[in-house]
Amino acid sequence: MKTSIITDTTALLEAANILQQGGLVASPTETVYGLCANALNENAVKNIYKAKGRPSDNPLIVHIADLEMLSPLVEEVPPMARTLMEHFWPGPLTLIFKASSLVPKVVTGGLDTVAIRFPSHPIIQQLIKASGLPLAAPSANTSGKPSPTNASRVIEDLEGKIDAIIVGDSSKYGVESTVVDTTGEVATILRPGGITAEMIEAVLGSVTIDPAISHALKEGELPKAPGMKYIHYSPNAEVIIVDGEESLVISKMNELIVSAHSQGKKVGVLATDETKEHFKADLVISAGTTKNLTTIAAHLFEALRTFDDADIDIVYSLAFPKKGIGNAIMNRLEKSAGYHIIKL
């Protein structure tokens, strides 16, 4: 398959036509790049799973470009969902609703619920409007790898497997959307993201956090939202997180680096601006400053992919504060490490 690389983002008609014909188009969004297909076309959605190598019980998020598109896709809009929509849509927030009969089961991973997001990025908004379709869109990468935050990584993973890739800017947030289940009595965060628990609590008064955020799902347990069940966000390198007081972490990581080098391994370190000079690894990458966790979130996935570019065998990473968007950073980092954490 020849993949069309679309660099003129003012001319999206070609991409819209591809979607209308059941094809696949990768588009920038404010979270990460997404792989889009007509959410109401079962065969098109199946091709998303095929192109990514994604398990079919992993639900997809449906993207809309105005509130009128929501009603046909859901049975009802609970009051708490309406409140969250008023405050955070368009933006990096996905809401779980009871699905209408219009939504194919291949989109919902066999569940009776559907995940829906109204993105704020102008390109995907224009794409939805030009095609006239709700778009199912997981991250535009090979399943399990770190999500792409720029077009070059999409090309790296999916060129020759999909119909078109729209080249836009780097993703603003760098981590996928927050997912909130609004079908119960209390809003429940199923995946942390750019809309933080503190922000949601400020408008709803209370919010619960699904315990599956901090551990792998058990065998046979269905994922309620994308990213909950399978290995995600993982570079080819082994990732190990070292968590504790900063001076102890630096000392321990340098011990681990020496040990890994003695075994002939190439070693990478995911550090911060404040700590990067303390490590003698083959590749040290700063994700940013701990004074601005938003910057670290934006750089996380690209850093993990850069270790693979350098054929790094093992990556030692600092832990980041679990506050605000730090919860999303650590959720992705812990999954990339398979929950392999050394606590000091």
TrEMBL record:
Residues binding L-threonine: T31, R117, A137, S177
A Pfam cross-reference name: Sua5_C
Q: Which reaction does it catalyse?
A: L-threonine + hydrogencarbonate + ATP = L-threonylcarbamoyladenylate + diphosphate + H2O
EC code: 2.7.7.87
* Ranges for domain YrdC-like: 9-195
Where does the source fall among the domains of life? Bacteria
Q: Which UniProt keywords apply?
A: ATP-binding, Cytoplasm, Nucleotide-binding, Nucleotidyltransferase, Transferase, tRNA processing
Q: Which InterPro entries match?
A: DHBP_synth_RibB-like_a/b_dom, Sua5-like_dom, Sua5/YwlC_C, Sua5_C, T(6)A37_SUA5, TC-AMP_synthase_SUA5
What residues does ATP bind to?
A: R54, N58, H63, T113, S139, S147, R191, Y233
Q: Which GO molecular function terms does the record list? A: ATP binding; double-stranded RNA binding; L-threonylcarbamoyladenylate synthase; tRNA binding
Q: What biological processes does GO assign it? A: regulation of translational fidelity; tRNA processing
> Any idea where this protein resides?
Cytoplasm
One term under GO cellular component: cytoplasm
Q: What does this protein do?
A: Required for the formation of a threonylcarbamoyl group on adenosine at position 37 (t(6)A37) in tRNAs that read codons beginning with adenine.
Name the UniProt record assigns to this protein: Threonylcarbamoyl-AMP synthase
